[in-house]
Amino acid sequence: MSGQKSRRTLRERGAELAYTAGWRLVRLLPERAAVALFQAGADLVVRRGGRGIDQLRRNLRRVAPESTEAQLDELVRQSMRSYLRYWREAFRLPTMDLAAVIAKVNTTLVGRENLDAALAGKGAIAVLPHSGNWDIAGVWAVGTYGSMTSVVERLRPEPLYRRFVAYREALGFEIMPHDGGKRMMETLLTRIREGRLVCLIADRDLSRRGVEVEFFGETTRMASGPARLAAQTGALLVPAACEFTDDGWAIRLHEPISVASSSHADVQAATQRVADRFAADIASRPQDWHMMQPLWLSDLSERRRARLSRDTPDPTAVVESPMVAPDTSRSTGHGRTEPPS
């Protein structure tokens, strides 16, 4: 155990140093050089392979089942380039002109009237998959509506978690730690009842907190928390999609979804509607979906599937780990920040 702990500590320290260097150095590079560097890095990661890349390929095969092997190879390459573009932009975003970012988003934004309607006289809950640059969506939300509240899972090591929180707070986000505690739930409920916007990433929750849905023809579990919050407050769920364009970003805001009650049946039905909307958006631009962990139950071990089948949804849960980047290599949880292997 001591050896495992030591290796974990070294990995965590390495991750902290890598991300700290990224924040400091990438901002100094000319844009063209940064783009070339991160694209080359993405291509190298794909050539090296590893568990994260293998899982990404399996996931994308579900999204694009008619692709040839060569087409799937290219889709995996483009997806990793998209993922590292997220990180390149994350490292540079604090020094970017946020007003210009918001103006650029507004040129491609689709469906703002849906979120405006959901927020009319009450709060709303935007739900997103791990696609595109969700931090850009948060910047747009803060600039447009004045505030945005979300939740992040605690990362290891703690200094790296604090850096991520400080990064998003500097962008104007209100960040709550995902500790399952009463304070987190009370804050989310309060913000919604104050008429504010809550944003949650909700396309994966392989735990007792999730509810089963069909997704690209197979069964998985997704976060039930957004639908439960909506039922408790009367707020509407607004599915959203974030995508990259050649020189910017595109955001789509879909028609709101209402949740009749907190019953399992109503929560499951609403979550399935969210999953269907996610699937349509992901299928339209699969390279921007950054899911490098097991998602479908059929990809889990028999032991883990058996454990999940004995679990029942936790009515106090919100989401597994929204608004953090997914781990690209080791499927132990979204909160890990180790680089892909």
UniProtKB/TrEMBL annotation:
It comes from Actinoalloteichus hymeniacidonis. Its EC number is 2.3.1.-. It is an enzyme of class 2 (transferase). The keyword Nucleotidyltransferase does not apply. It comes from the Bacteria. Keywords: Acyltransferase, Cell inner membrane, Cell membrane, Membrane, Transferase. Residues 305-341 are annotated as: Disordered. GO terms for cellular component: plasma membrane. InterPro entries: LipA_acyltrans. It is found in: Cell inner membrane. This is Lauroyl/myristoyl acyltransferase. GO terms for biological process: glycolipid biosynthetic process. GO terms for molecular function: acyltransferase activity.
